[in-house]
Write a structure and sequence with these properties.
This protein is mainly α and 219 residues long. The chain has nine helices and three strands; from the N terminus they run H-H-H-H-E-E-E-H-H-H-H-H. Helix 8 packs across helix 9. The protein is elongated, with a radius of gyration of 22 Å.
């Protein structure tokens, strides 16, 4: 049983390994999409596999397994799963559910579909962020504004506008959901964040035309 379940997972893990090694060599826009698709494929293959392993494990536990036996039989799982495999998979799924629910709630709290293009926030900490949602709300702190001259301010705004224009929040949400559901995917999810930051950096270069100034400002 485990062998048949593992085959699609091994194939998609191979795709993920290729995405991990190749993303730096690809243009940022293509890299972000490639790694995001790889993440989705891994989740599609791994999550059902993990669920079936967990169900097969629970079905053979005395007392509590009775309620899972019909489910295991319905999906054709007749063999038992050793505890050293079943218990970690079950714990991984439980952690994934908690993290996914928490992430969805946070995303809904931050999402804005109607807002002003740029909001200046009173803060002594320098930061600039783009909130998720169709509005593309950019928030820049007063400390950040005070640090920048006109050219640097234009670069930071161009960088954040690229995040909004290309809906980078969707890429990030997909990556974060994948990493929340399956924590071992966190390293691959970080590749998505790296690629979209490069994507926004290139957009800022297109606006100001000075790659070195963009690197210094955003660095």
């Amino acid at each position: 049983m485990l062998g048949s379940l593992a085959f699609p997972l091994l194939v998609t893990l191979g795709v993920a390994a290729i995405a991990t090694s190749a993303h730096r060599r690809l243009p940022p826009r293509l890299a972000a999409r490639f790694v995001t698709i790889a993440l989705v494929l891994v989740v599609i293959a791994a999550l059902p596999t993990a669920v079936m392993v967990a169900v097969a494990f629970l079905a053979h536990i005395p007392v509590i397994g009775v309620g899972f036996q019909w489910c295991a039989q319905a999906i054709g799982l007749h063999g038992s799963v050793p505890a050293w495999i079943g218990a970690p998979v079950l714990a991984l799924l439980a952690i994934g559910v908690v993290r996914t629910v928490r992430l969805v709630r946070q995303h809904r709290a931050l999402r804005m579909d109607h807002a002003h293009p740029i909001h200046i926030a009173q803060s002594h900490k320098p930061y600039a962020v783009t909130l998720p949602g169709r509005a593309g709300q950019i928030v820049i702190s007063t400390a950040m504004v005070d640090m920048l001259d006109d050219d640097e301010h234009r670069i930071v705004v161009a960088h954040e506008e690229a995040h909004a224009r290309y809906r980078h929040d969707r890429y990030l949400l997909t990556a974060e959901l994948a990493a929340a559901a399956l924590p071992p995917l966190r390293a691959l999810a970080r590749r998505v964040n790296f690629s979209i930051e490069r994507w926004a950096d290139e957009a800022a270069v297109a606006v100001c035309g000075d790659r070195r100034l963009v690197a210094v400002t955003l660095g």
